[in-house]
Each structure stands twice: as structure tokens, then as C-alpha cells.
Design a protein that fits this description.
Chain B: Keywords: Acetylation, Cytoplasm, Exosome, Isopeptide bond, Nucleus, RNA-binding, rRNA processing, Ubl conjugation. The complex is a heterodimer of chains A (212) and B (256). By secondary structure, chain A is an all-beta fold. Helix content of chain A is 0%, strand content 38%. In chain A, strand 4 and strand 5 form a beta hairpin. The chains are: A mainly beta (212), B alpha+beta (256). At the A-B interface, loops of A face strand 5 of B.
């Protein structure tokens, strides 16, 4: 029985005739058979047909000698994902006695459209004297931290990050009075208005990355 | 920066100050009168080391008031300024001894209600003589007297019932019976002052056991229920009675 899809994209359900390019489709929709095209990114093949696995726009790239490639694209640009070993900029959202939860804002120098969640465990904060680390003396909520991705994690868990290097750690932090603090050593920062010192794990930013 | 000019701190001692008031310190405390240069050297403490107590925060060349109350000053030892304020809501502070009520047992950790914004956690190993095999006998609803080891605005507070050398020193589970009630934090501080008259006068009336928690909770136990309730009522009323009214009330009771 003929199905009517979204406006402007009717097709016959029996044979799955080719659809117009850049038409929207939802996850699970059957696009065409494997005899007419090859599956590209965002699709999978079952029972001799190609199905979409994303909700997005259909794209067909026809090549001269081979079958055209059908793929489903969600956004016009693909999202940059942090890889293992990438240096990311993140903001601390909550701390615990065992770990700190962060939102990943930048990968390298590229801002992310949607933030990812990361975790910095207590034993990954420093490289030396890991037992004596106190999370409260290394990070506080709303600090901006440079960290390195050490694991992508499972489906439910977040990215695992580490700050166990001299160049990683807190870059920007506010004191309890609300003023941005000045780093005075690798473990302390001072507030310029109230002159109180607070403990943080401070990053030694490389000179070529400092903008003045 | 500050929209209004500050007033000298000495002029306001003993008067009511409001949050946002700027107090100027006398000139000899500040070596550079221009104000806000950040001194990072270790010897930056001024000549008499001025202590900035609760309710005050250093701000540039003076002190900024953050709580409303009476400004107090102690000239000894370089001088100290602080604000005496009335407060009923307790905010956990590291090192404070408090009375907590056990609300839940979650694995190895007890959850205690201490009157703050979050329940505190207490590990079962934090009692004197507790091991993994020898667990303390704590039930939901028990009263525990302990101190905070971790207490800040970013993390959940943690309590222990042993001190740094591993001895309990009076902390632990508070026994059966007795009466728990809540008073304001100012009264607790008054009762904890050395040689408090209220406690001395009450102890001449009846013998009783007393536990004071910095979170405003007091536990009292006397020989009979009636005596316990009398002590509770006197302590609650002490906040608003003058010394003479208190002596009259106690004289009436000991006369009966």
C-alpha cells in the first residue's frame, strides 16, 4: 500500500524507488535496496535493504563506475569528537571526594556545539603523590581546566580525563569574593582583592599559547 | 570602585553594621596608602597582625561587612574585628562538634541530618575501636556527637567520631533517653564560653548530663522526666532572659 512520507517525498514502499536527495528521513526508515546503492555513513543494511540509522537528510553521491553511495547526514558539518590523547578545555561543574565532573567545552581550539561530560578521577589529577591528593584543593566548581582525554568510556559513563602533567590543570579560577585569581605557584592562586590564597592544581601554560 | 566612602572601623565598634558597609582601617595597618597593589611577598603581614573574623572580608584597603550584626573589636594580639550576628540556620564548618540524627544507612556509610543544606556522611570505621569485623551498633534514629573533617560549600560534609589520634574523646553515639531540642547558634556559643553562669547555676539545681552541638542542638538527661523538662525549659528561655530574671526563676524552682 502506498505510504505517504513527509511532504514532497512520496515513494513506492514495495520496491523503494530512489528518493529525492537531501530529503529528510528518520531513524529506521527503509531507503532503498542494496542492488541500487551502497550503504554509506548513517545507514545500515538488513535483509537486502538499506535503512537509515539517524534522523537527518538523505545524501546520494553517484560515482561513475560503481553504485551510488547513500548516506544520512545529521548536520552540515560533522561534530568534532575528542579522541584519546586530545587536550580539551573544560569547566568543572561539581566535585566529590573521589572525582570531579566537568563539561567539555573546547577540543583543542575548536568550540563544541554541545558540551560533553567528563570525569577527572582523584588519582588522575596529579602525576606524583597520588594518595595525598585532595580534590577540594585541586579544583572547585566553575574553574576552567585544561585536561587530556585518557579514555572514551562506555556507553553510560563519561569521558575520562587526566591533568597529570605540568601543562594541564586550572587555567582560570574565581576566588570566593568573585574576582579572577592570579597563580602564584603550581598549587596556589591568590585573589588580588582580598589577598587570600586558595589551593588549585595550576597549569603551566606554554608561552606560545598565552595571548597578551 | 566603592560607591560610598567607608567609615573608620573604630567608630563603629559596638554598633549595628549592615552588609556592604566598608570599614576603613587605621593608617598604620596599611603601608601603602594608595590601596590595591597586590603584595605577594611572604612578609606582607602588617605590623600588628589584624584578624578579620566572621562576618567580615578584606577588600582593598579596608574590611567589607558581609553579615548584619554588632561590630566587635579585641585589641589584644594585633587586634581582631568580627561581627556578632543572630543566626538559627547552621552552616557546616570544619572542626565543629555537632549532634547529628542518623537518617539512613547506605553501605559503609551513615547519612546524618545535621541541620545544614545537605546530610553529612559518617563512615562506620570512624568510631573508636571499629574495624571491618567489629562494626558499631548504630540504628536509624540514633543521635551521634561528632566533628566535621570536610565541610565546605562545594562538597557534601563528612563527619567522624574520633579525633586525630584515634581516640573518641567524648564523641560517639549518645545514649538512650534524654531530650533533644534546638536553640539559636548564639545561645550555644554563650553556653560554650568558659565558666558559663547558666550552666553553673543549673548544675546546683539538679544533676544532669548535657551535650551541646554547634548546630544549635542540645541533648539533656536528668534523673526524672520532670527534671529533664525543667532544665530544657530553662535553657530555652535563657536566650531572652536577663541574668536577674534567670536567678529569680531558679530560686523559685529550688524553693519548690
Amino acid at each position: 500500500m502506498p505510504r505517504t512520507g513527509p511532504a514532497g517525498s512520496e515513494r513506492c514502499a514495495r520496491s523503494g524507488m530512489p528518493r529525492q536527495p537531501l530529503s529528510p528521513c528518520v531513524a529506521g526508515e527503509r531507503l532503498c535496496s542494496t542492488e541500487e546503492a551502497t550503504a554509506g555513513s548513517g545507514t545500515y543494511t538488513r535483509h537486502g535493504f538499506i535503512f537509515s540509522s539517524l534522523a537527518g537528510c538523505l545524501e546520494r553521491k553517484s560515482e561513475d563506475n560503481e553504485l551510488p553511495v547513500v548516506s544520512v547526514v545529521r548536520d552540515s558539518e560533522s561534530q568534532l569528537l575528542p579522541n584519546v590523547g586530545a587536550v580539551v578545555t573544560c569547566k568543572v561543574c561539581s566535585i566529590n571526594s573521589r572525582f570531579a565532573k566537568v563539561h567539555i567545552l573546547y577540543v583543542g581550539s575548536t568550540p563544541l556545539k554541545s558540551t560533553f561530560r567528563g570525569t577527572i578521577r582523584r588519582e588522575d589529577i596529579r602525576a606524583t603523590e597520588k594518595d595525598k591528593v585532595e580534590v577540594y584543593k585541586s579544583f572547585r566548581p566553575s574553574d576552567i581546566v585544561l585536561a587530556k582525554v585518557i579514555s572514551l568510556g562506555d556507553a553510560q559513563s563519561n569521558y575520562l580525563l587526566s591533568t597529570a602533567e605540568n601543562e594541564l590543570g586550572v587555567v582560570v579560577a574565581r576566588s570566593e569574593a568573585g574576582v579572577q585569581m592570579v597563580p602564584i605557584s603550581w598549587c596556589e592562586m591568590q585573589c588580588p582583592r582580598t589577598h587570600t590564597k586558595e589551593f588549585r592544581k595550576v597549569a603551566r601554560v606554554q608561552p606560545q599559547f598565552l595571548q597578551t | 570602585m566603592a560607591a560610598e566612602r567607608g567609615t573608620a572601623a573604630e567608630a563603629l565598634v559596638g554598633q549595628v553594621v549592615l552588609p556592604g558597609d566598608l570599614l576603613l582601617l587605621p593608617a598604620h595597618y596599611d603601608e601603602d596608602a594608595e590601596g590595591e597593589r597586590l603584595r605577594l611577598s611572604a612578609g606582607a603581614a602588617p605590623q600588628g597582625r589584624l584578624l578579620c573574623g566572621p562576618g567580615l572580608r578584606r577588600s582593598g584597603a579596608g574590611l567589607l561587612v558581609t553579615k548584619c550584626g554588632l561590630l566587635r573589636h579585641r585589641p589584644a594580639g594585633g587586634g581582631a574585628y568580627w561581627v556578632d550576628s543572630q543566626q538559627k540556620r547552621y552552616v557546616p564548618v570544619k572542626g565543629d562538634h555537632v549532634i547529628g540524627i542518623v537518617t539512613a544507612k547506605a553501605g559503609d556509610v551513615f547519612r546524618l541530618d545535621v541541620g545544614g543544606s545537605e546530610p553529612a556522611s559518617l563512615s562506620y570505621l570512624a568510631f573508636e575501636g571499629a574495624t571491618k569485623r567489629n562494626r558499631p551498633n548504630v540504628q536509624v534514629g540514633d543521635l551521634i556527637y561528632g566533628q566535621f573533617v570536610v565541610a565546605n560549600k562545594d562538597m557534601e560534609p563528612e563527619m567522624v567520631c574520633i579525633d586525630s589520634s584515634g581516640k573518641s574523646s567524648g564523641m560517639g553515639i549518645i545514649g538512650q533517653d534524654g531530650f533533644l531540642f534546638k536553640v539559636s547558634l548564639g545561645l550555644i556559643r554563650k553556653l560554650l564560653a568558659p565558666k558559663c553562669e547558666i550552666i553553673q547555676e543549673l548544675s546546683q539545681l539538679y544533676p544532669f548530663e548535657l551535650v551541646l552541638g554547634m548546630n544549635g542542638r542540645i541533648w539533656v538527661k536528668a534523673k526524672t522526666v520532670q527534671q529533664t523538662l525543667i532544665v530544657v525549659n530553662i535553657l530555652e528561655a535563657c536566650e531572652y532572659m536577663t541574668a536577674e530574671q534567670r536567678k529569680q526563676a531558679l530560686a523559685k524552682l529550688s524553693g519548690n
